[in-house]
Amino acid sequence: MNPILKNEIKLNVRTSKLAIMITVINTILAGFGVFSLVSLVGKESVIDYTQMLKLYILLAYVEFAMMLLLIPTITAGSVAGERERQTLDILLMTKIKPWDIVIGKLFSSLSSTLLLAVSSLPILALVYVYGGLRLIDFFALILFLLISAVFIGSIGILFSVIMRKSTFAAVASYITEIGLILGSYVAVHGYYHIRWLGAVKKPIYIDPDIGNAVYFLLINPLITFFGLINNQVGNSKAILNFCSAYGNFADDYIMNHWLIISLIVQFLFSFLLLWIASHKINPLRKC
Amino acid sequence: MLLIHDLYKKYGKFHALNGLDLQVAEGEIFGLVGPNGAGKTTSMKIMAGLLKADKGEVSIDGLNVLTNYNKLKEWVGYMPDFFGVYDNLKVMEYLEFYASGYGITGKRNRDICLEMLDLVKLSGQTDNYVDQLSRGMKQKLCLARCMIHNPKLLILDEPASGLDPNSRFEFKQIIKQLKERDKTIIISSHILTELAEFCTSIGIMETGRMVLQGDMEEILASIENSNPLMIKIYKNLDTAVQVLKQELMVKTLSIQGNTIMVSFTGSREEEALLLKKLVMNDVLVTNFSKESSNLETLFLTITNNEGVNW
Question: Does a structural domain hold residue A157?
Fold first, then answer.
């Protein structure tokens, strides 16, 4: 086992931080769940089973949002925290390879998130009790959360390596995260708008098509999450419908396999970010 | 063992190292001394492979630090001047973690950790949390940590700073024990007399350069030889001055009351002959001795740029 990961897990469980975090987040999730359940059942005690899926959507989004909020803070403090604690030099003197340090730090940070995701499964299972979802859907959700967590976490790790203070690293990670989620959407929409402004000036108006530029959204975890959840509750064309606003993608291969391709893209980006981080952490790097 | 040639390092406009040259032989305990900002920590970090020099070469046992970094990690143990510890780890766990970082696992890991704790006299602390240890104990734990992989070369950056006299004494004893284990040790301090007790050679750094380097015994002998003679005269001061002025080995004279300070280049025997000559000329002498000075005086002289040549 990676010594960094082993050590960090040991350190994590010895602080009350993790227990408090799991309690608070699961309480929020449970609060949402029970409140929504009561609202959906209503006073007549008649249950509309299709409404249960709305509860699943709500809980999944809350969990995803909390992941987006938590991971930058946790990962940003990983390497920068070692530097602040003045333990990084000592760590770099060991034979642990820079890549293993980075991976150990990432997975130790994500272990808390994974623990959180698993511990919240009973709350998500509220929906499972009433039917409408398959067990595999829950695992697909966990898998998605894990890959997105690796992606967001890699950004945090990179900034944690580059910046000297964990506070600055966290701020930079949040800004990048917002850039990924809102920025990629604004970029695609902005590009479409520029094309549209050109189109309306022409004598014959033809709907603009931004073509391949729409694939920029593959790096947006929120769009992919939106596609996954809609797919699970029966709307498999959600992403296609969303992207149709920017062109005709009906027979597009990437559009029809958006979920898997987006996850692969996120995974590759994660790998690249971690590789850069492992290069940067090496004190004798050539550049 | 360690060879540093023409090393330069700049932080912004500040030149931390200005062509540092240094040579440390195997088995030596080398004391690196210099005032704050002389470049001791920077040079030690470069030796340990934690910092890249702008120019120059560092090699350990003939291997360049830059190109053989992974190999050198096995050979070098480094204790930084400021270091942190993982407060939520127990003493044993702390060492076990670093031992695993060097690929030492299982029973061997535990055995080595126990041996190191025994060496630094922390055997009774294995189950205590690191944050419960005193500063001195933490320093010793850090020393144990940097020896966990049995390195040939130990680089210790001000290891005894901030310790009380008892802890300093214990530290010296540990260093002496390490010497018996044939370790090559480079130890920095800004307190020269402290190093004089156990170092075999010293180097004095000033503004990123080595201004004096050599064998400890030779340097101490040089200090002794270069000190001025202090002659206290009871009667016939003028005659004494005349006699001294005629001596070829007397370079300079200064008179303060009835005391004459003489810069004398002769041997111990020639000193005795000079005293005899004074007495033969009816000069009554109450004191005839070398002025007492030590490494600290030397250090202050050199670092105040008073131009001492050796």
Answer: yes
| Own/partner pairs, B61-68, CB within 8 angstroms, 24+ separation | B61/B1, B61/B152, B65/A284, B66/A284
- Structural domain for A67, as ranges: 3-281
B239: confidence class by pLDDT, cuts 50, 70, 90: very high
A24-63 pLDDT tens trace:
888 888 887 788 777 776 666 666 667 777 778 888 888 8
> Do the domain assignments include residue A117?
yes
A287 domain residue, yes or no? no
Nearest to A85 among B49, B74, B84 (CB): B84
ipTM surpasses 0.85:
no
- The string of DSSP codes covering B197-261 is TT-SEEEEEETTEEEEEEEHHHHHHHHHHHSPEEEEEEE-HHHHHHHHHH-TTEEEEEEETTEEE
pTM: 0.78
Q: How many domains does chain A have?
A: 1
Contact A86 B83 (CB under 8 A): yes
Give the model confidence (pLDDT) of A141-183 as tens digits.
888 988 999 999 999 999 999 998 999 999 999 999 999 999 9
Q: What percent of chain A has pLDDT over 90?
A: 29
* Residue B224, min C-alpha distance to chain A (Å): 41
Q: Is residue A286 part of a domain?
A: no
Contact list, B141 vs chain A (CB under 8 Å): none
* CB-CB under 8 Å, A87 with B73: no
CA distance B18 to B211: 11
d(CA A85, CA A72): 19
Question: Are residues A93 and B66, on separate chains, in Cβ contact within 8 Å?
Answer: no
DSSP assignment of A159-210 equals: HHHH-SSHHHHHHHHHHHHHIIIIIHHHHHHHHHHHHHHHHHHSSS------
